[in-house]
Amino acid sequence: MKQEQPAGICEELTFSGFFKSHAKALRNFLYYKFGNEEQADEATQEAFIKLWENCASVPPEKAKSFLYTVANNTTLNHIAHKKVVLEYSKKNVNHDTNNQSPEFLMEEEQFKVKLQNAIANLSEAQRSAFLLHRIDGKKYHEIAEILGIGVKAVEKRIHGALLQLRKEIDTFR
Amino acid sequence: MNEDVTLAKWLNDDMNDQELKDFMAQPEYATYSKIKEFSGQLTVPQTDMDALYQNITRNRNKANQPKVRKLNPWMPRVAAMLILALGATFFFFTTNTTSQIAGTGERDTFLLPDNSEVVLNAGSEAEYKEFNWSKNRKLELNGEAYFKVAKGKTFDVVTSLGTVTVVGTQFNVRARNGRLDVTCFEGKVKVTNGKETVFLTPGKTVAYENGKKLNLPDVSASGPGWINYETYFGKVRLQEVIREMERQYKVTINLNATVDKRFNGTIPMNNIDTALDQILPVYHLQAKKVGNTITLSAE
């Protein structure tokens, strides 16, 4: 293979490498947005295809923001907005499970379910920001970049999300 | 405007000690801390990213084509199928031709949709469309046939040598090897051969050989002789007479002599020996029969 000068996105290797490093996060984000795996997959594909189509005009350092801009502009028909179903990772389950009382464990389980429901009931904007932080471990400024808003707006959304979650969980205690 | 974003600050571990202490003192803190803890354990249902990438590489090659998102992918398919089916049916009805064939040594009598009668002589083929027959009475003929046409609109017999148009009549058309013979037995017949048009009245015959008109005597019979196995040949090359006999008798006849004289007369087509007896003396030939092959040579 001959080495072309600055390997742009049009380069197969660059494109696939870019996909490997960003596709999963993009898909997660789209999943928070749509709450539907199929739509998230479809929108992910579409965003990358758009990127490929425009690979000549998008420099590699702008590719990520291009991707999220496309993703943010995707307006899919929300025929049936499915509930965001998130699972708790198994390995993280509490430290010394054996030392916990059954009541405590049950209470914890109930809390988890309530949290899942409360997250599903958040607005799309709040949920996306909150989960990008909690699941993907994004910094606020990264979230701001992804959503195309300011850091302050991200903080407002996170604050609002926490407030909303706490209220809903405590109300149904 | 300074909106409250303290919770966001806390979640991001941005609070200073004093702020954190105050926050932890609040009754809601327990829930917040649990939200923080458990939301950190959440995961997204995963998908096969390799398959996703395959999809992308497959689809991006079509990327340059304009994308049209179909509302319902079945609609155009159903429509296309309907149109195809209708088109095929129409095509079938309008172009479907009926063929009648009389093989060597055979005859075929059949009726056209308007009950016109056609008798095909041996080794002849007729083709016509049943669709809209009454408005378009047209038949393609290759060989010889006798027609008794029902009254009605014009009736066309198309041959490679010319077209015969008639109105309610009986006539014989013979189109073989560059020679066209048309004899009218009843009614009126119009024969178009190239630029020339001839009208025939009963008893009249017109013949063209390689585009040249031949003068033939009138016939007094009410129908062509071949119908009754008595084929009349008017100024016909011997080679053509022999070919006709081959068709009728299902034999092979080799002519090993050069003859220029044309044949004039009637030959029976149901008795080959009698038929040969009619020809041989005229041309001073003798016949030798081996199986289905007859060889004619000079005496």
Which series of helices and strands of chain A comes N to C?
HHHEHHHH
Quaternary state of this entry equals heterodimer
Work out the helix count of chain B. 7
Q: Percent of residues of chain B in helical segments?
A: 25-40%
Helices of chain A, by number, come to 7
**Which CATH architecture of the largest domain in chain A?**
Orthogonal Bundle
Q: What characterizes the major β-sheet of chain B? A: 11 strands, mixed
Overall pLDDT score of chain A: 81
Which fold name is given in CATH as the topology of the largest domain in chain B?
A: Jelly Rolls
Total number of beta strands of chain B: 17
Shape of chain A: elongated
* CATH C-level class of the largest domain in chain A: Mainly Alpha
What value does the average pLDDT of chain B take?
A: 85
Low-confidence stretches of chain A: 1-5
Total domain count of chain B: 3
Short description:
The complex is a heterodimer of chains A (173) and B (299). Chain A is mostly helical and 173 residues long.
Core attributes:
heterodimer; A: 173 residues; mainly alpha; B: 299 residues; alpha+beta; Jelly Rolls; Phage tail protein beta-alpha-beta fold; eleven-stranded mixed β-sheet; 7 helices
Protein described:
The complex is a heterodimer of chains A (173) and B (299). Chain A has 173 residues and is mainly alpha-helical. Chain A has seven helices and one strand, in the order αααβαααα. Chain A is 65% helix and 1% strand. Chain B has three domains: 31 residues, no CATH class; 131 residues, Jelly Rolls, CATH 2.60.120.1440; 71 residues, Phage tail protein beta-alpha-beta fold, CATH 3.55.50. Helices cover 28% and strands 37% of the residues of chain B. At the A-B interface, helix 1, helix 2, strand 1, helix 4 and helix 5 of A face helix 1, helix 3, strand 1 and helix 4 of B. Strand 1 of chain A pairs antiparallel with strand 1 of chain B.
